[in-house]
Amino acid sequence: MIPSTPPVMPLRVVVLMPLRDDWASAAELIRRLDQAISSYPCTVDVMLVDDGSVQDFRSADFQSRFAAVRRIQVLRLRRNLGHQRAIAVGLVHVYKVIPCDAVLVMDGDGEDTPDGALQLLRAFSGTTAIFAERSRRTESFVFRLFYQFYKLLHRMLTGISVRVGNFSILPSRYLSTLVVMSELWNHYAAAVFRSGLPFTTTPIPRGYRITGTSSMNFVSLTAHGMSAISVFGDVVGVRLLIGSLAGSYWPAWELFSSS
Q1: I need a labelling partner for 175 at 20 to 30 A (CA). Which of 7, 196, 198, 236 fits?
Q2: Tens of pLDDT, residues 54-63
């Protein structure tokens, strides 16, 4: 069991942002984030996980008069690993190198909002992970349609409803469990759910991209969804086995019943 001790203020927070070429968005987002949380009793280290960017990072773009943000670091990956593995690498790095009380995971494009981050901080108790449950989505109709189909498929195969993404805050004590889970390399949120560690959700609307357009396409969306489902591979296997057995015996049962 994780000991139940309240967080000590000011809270030491690491903001973990995986990104690929979204430097302009991330720079503006960090400025907005600093303004949003300036009155909250915390100190913030921002860890940008550069997931194989083509564009160069320019430190001058991130210079500002910050109130809560103490420093901004860049963890460069030698190749593009994908969003979920970039988060996994970042969490391992934080666990090994950066002492903190909490890790706030958020995307760097602006869809995870500074106001939402403040909401997560205010709800943080030090003993439970908190995930943002999307109360409003801003994607296209096609994306939302595909997402509804994915939610149905996920529910059928795993028995778990999909309600959250990566936007969340973790007690740092969770890291010792998460960094040794192989599932973390497939899907961050699903790994937290599978770990058995306590978590909750809170409704937070999704924001809008600050600059540029999303690089997410149908193939990457499908891969992302399958990665989440794969974390529950044993559950999926049992459900498919039961479903196939029930399907094979159903005709025989119908024949027996009619006679």
Answers
A1: 236
A2: 998 888 999 9
